[in-house]
Amino acid sequence: MSVRFILALLIWLSHLGFANADPVDCSRTYTLALHEHGLLYAADTDTGIDKDVADELIRRSGCKVRVSLMPRARIWQLIESGALDFSLSGISNPERDRFADFAWYFSNKYYLLVRKDTEVQALADFEKKDKLQLGVIRSFRYSESANRLVDTLQLANRLSQAGGLAPLYQTLIQGRIQGMIIEPFDFPMLEEKRIREVSTIIKFNDPPVPHGLIMSHKSLSATQLVQWRALVNGMRADGSMRRIFEKYFTPEVAGALVNF
Q1: What letter would DSSP give residue 37?
Q2: Within 13 Å of residue 91, how many CA atoms lie on the same side as its CB?
């Protein structure tokens, strides 16, 4: 057997790994919902990382997918009921694992954005000062320490919930909340003068949290889950996912997000 033949065989086998060897079941139209969140998706420009990921998944699958925009809380409800097939940039927890599967494509840390006038220097300070209110996006979960802070403050009636980032930034500027939880996709907004002047960032010392394609157990078969996960894995393996992230971040930051 010649070296040339062996090399050709290896290349062919590698392409089988990257491409979806078994065609995706396109016997029906699928549904996918985006949610507005910083660089992940902006409705006013119809751009963002999740929009690019969705477009590439649809192209690779060859299937018809009806894409819509929804609040995050509504997305989780529909995924659980089976009325929605997919969403993006979701994180897992034991409750969600009962009704959803995930195909991971990036991982990131969380941060506490806090008003400077609170004189909070550490995460524990925020919890101890019982007059401080924390703003969160309804139905969002975060890293372990961040979730613990959210749950503790919710029990103390110190939580303010909103449907998205924009109203939280506004209430932070107005001083109606004193902190909010953010991630790297929200950093460009911190360059806005009004936010930068009043706030500072404290890091949660948790490992990065994987985010991925959310797939409904009720609406998708076990075979379909495998097929769509293979598409995401293929995008990671051939560098397509990293190239999408490099449109929005430096190569170093993009690499840190997608290589985990």
Answers
A1: B
A2: 16
